[in-house]
Amino acid sequence: MRYGIYVPNFGSSLGDPSVLVSLAVAAEEAGWDGFFLWDHVVRPGEPVLADVWVTLGAVAARTSSIRLGPMVTSLGRRRPWKVAAEASTLQRLSGGRLVLGVGAGVPDDFVPFGERVSRAEALSEGVSLLRALLSGEPVEHQGALFQASGVRFARVDVPLWIGGNWPRSIPFRAAEHGAGVVPATFVDYELVVLSPDEAAAMKAAFVASGGPADGDVAIWGGGALPEEVKEYEDAGVTWMFTDGGAAGLDELRAFVAAGPPSRA
To answer: How many domains does the chain have?
Structure first.
């Protein structure tokens, strides 16, 4: 099991990119395996927000070993070619530490700007185009939502984790292009932790849809990381995300500094 700090990028404290960078540096020093950020353009009621890609660029420049990435980026909102350019740059800057989470996105990032794209279709088609753009080969793509002609980017290997709301089927539309899956589960709009049995069923569905049998499964562990780590490992979970349930920045800093659970 690997353990990642997973925090939002908005609010009076966490909307400050310098604060997020300092948390990432502290996480690396404390032995955490990854540092991952939410990716939104707007959040209702939270006018202060840090751009994920700018912030992660600073994180990459200030760290040397910790994995990093957005969880998750909406391909319908950012556009696959823009994401390809950002991911390629960040992967080279970080020395190969980027993991790119992609998903359909949420209405709050579309509706205020008059966007009416099908978010599910944008994920399905967008992942295929993103993969092609990162392949190093010339790209000719004429799809229902996206077009690219005569385009060739440098080849850069970027592992993609497909995000979505389990048990809905959206994450599995793009399973064949993913190196892993990062599901979320909501009950009455509250994010809940998958049980080991649910995680096993989710991975089985992902593999059956074309995902790799040895791919990563990253789940949110809630405020307190679950004790039954072996059961999650047996279910195929490879990463556990947490923010420690911190009620404030000082509490979050203390949680990060304490480091991940012992692997002894």
So the answer is: 1
Residue 263 falls inside a structural domain = no
pLDDT tens per residue across span 44-67: 888 999 999 999 999 999 999 999
Q: Is 264 contained in some domain?
A: no
- Token pair 């392949």 is found at 135
How far is Cα 23 from Cα 25, in angstroms, rounded to an integer?
5
Q: Which of 170, 168, 67 is nearest to 127 (CA)?
A: 170
Tens-digit pLDDT profile for residues 144-175: 999 999 999 999 999 999 998 887 776 677 89
Cβ within 8 Å of residue 230, ≥6 positions away: none
Closest-CA residue to 23 (of 70, 46, 55)? 55
Task: Give the 3-state DSSP-derived string for 178-194, with helices as H, strands as E and coil as C.
Answer: CCEEEEEEEECCEEECC
Q: Is residue 52 part of a domain?
A: yes
Torsional sign, CA 104, 234, 1, 157: negative
Closest CA to 165 of 190, 183, 192, 178: 183
pTM above 0.90, yes or no: yes
Kindly state the tokens that stand for 202: 């989710």
Q: What's the domain range around 210? A: 2-258
Token pair, residue 149, equals 């002609």
Q: Which two tokens stand for residue 132?
A: 């092609």
Q: Give burial (CB, 10 Å; 0-12/13-18/19+) of 117.
A: middle
Residue 42 inside a domain? The answer is yes
Q: Assign residue 136 the CATH number of its domain.
A: 3.20.20.30
Other C-beta atoms closer than 10 Å to the C-beta of 80 total 27
